[in-house]
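User: I'm preparing a small set of examples for a lab meeting where we compare how different chains pack in three dimensions. I only have the primary sequence for this one, and I'd like the structure in token form so I can line it up with the others. Please keep the answer compact; I'll paste it straight into my notes.
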Amino acid sequence: MNLFNSIITLAETSGGTIYDAAGMLYIGVGIILVGMGFSSIAEGLVCSSALKGMARNPEATGNLRSSMILGVSLCETVAIYGLVLAILLIFVVGPSSLAA
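Assistant: Understood. Below is the structure token output for the 100-residue chain.
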């Protein structure tokens, strides 16, 4: 929270207005959403690779499935952290708190 306040203060003291600070905030949210998009692409790659492996070697389905679930959960944590951070930026550090 202190980092966000220092970034906002830096934007306001460098000759910018409150709208410039809000614009930077939403640019940050956009960058987070791009990261969430890459996370979903990674999940798709994990699932497609696991399905290809299951098709080639049906006996290893159990091991591949457990490895796939672990890989998807690790990819999903990036998206969840990004979602939490985006919600915090929009609703906690949003433009309404910048005006105060």
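A couple of notes for your slides: The radius of gyration is 20 Å. The mean pLDDT is 82.

User: Perfect, thanks.
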